[in-house]
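Take a sample.
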Amino acid sequence: MAQMAAEALALSEGMPIETALESIAFQDEASAVIDAIERELGDASGDLWFDWSDNRGRSDYRGRLKIAVTTRCDPARIQAVRGILEQAGLSQRCDIVTVVWSAAELAAAQQRAREVLEPLIGTAPFMAYLDASTNSVGIGVPGDLTAEQLKVVEAAVRAATVSVRVETGAGYAVPA
């Protein structure tokens, strides 16, 4: 299983298979403490993700665990998370990132955006998703929307009440 995951990671990130194997091993190690970190942060969590492009100038590994915490997070919680990472021997490959929106706030915003986008069902493909790395909700739509469809997208952006990125392009086009 690790070999297949490493091969996929090596292909998608353009890294040697040895580096990908080490990165997958790191992901496995970090996964063992993610639940404890999430419990510690509670509603101050902005989510966690692995950033495979971040190697801090090193050639012997790729990838860091990013732990997003809201600006409202109690510093004692952050110290507790640092303790969890230290105890697991992971602190050198993890970053705590301050964000505005919690994961729960982003999930609620994504749901509000989807509900507003529902009138597009059957007329234009769309996607509403969370992007923890940018602490935002994303909305993907084709680039050839009508004026009325654009109004629906604009209303979805307003309904989200968090940072929203709108992406347009052929990837969202209705197949001919």
